[in-house]
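Researcher: Please translate sequence to structure tokens.
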Amino acid sequence: MLRFHPDAPGGSTRVAWDEARFLTGRGHEVWAVCPAAGDRDPERIDRDGFRVLRYPAPRFRTFDPRRASAHQRGTASVLRRHLPGPPDVVHGHAPL
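Model: Translation complete:
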């Protein structure tokens, strides 16, 4: 997720939120990863039966080339600290 729905409500965040809740309800272990909305957001929370991991939101200027891979680097870092083993499926949610 590029944002966590309760932190930043919107159309695409709602789709990812609903998908995570649906899959959890079907018995799947779901982990969602997104940038933190603020500096004091906890790195991990359990919400509606699934886990949400947040990494510090990158602060790059609009045309900084590091922006292109900031989400991947943040995601990899937080997953290494929390995921108990390799995932079965990785689904990257983005509206475009």
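Researcher: Any highlights?
Model: Residues 68 and 92 are 14 Å apart (CA to CA).
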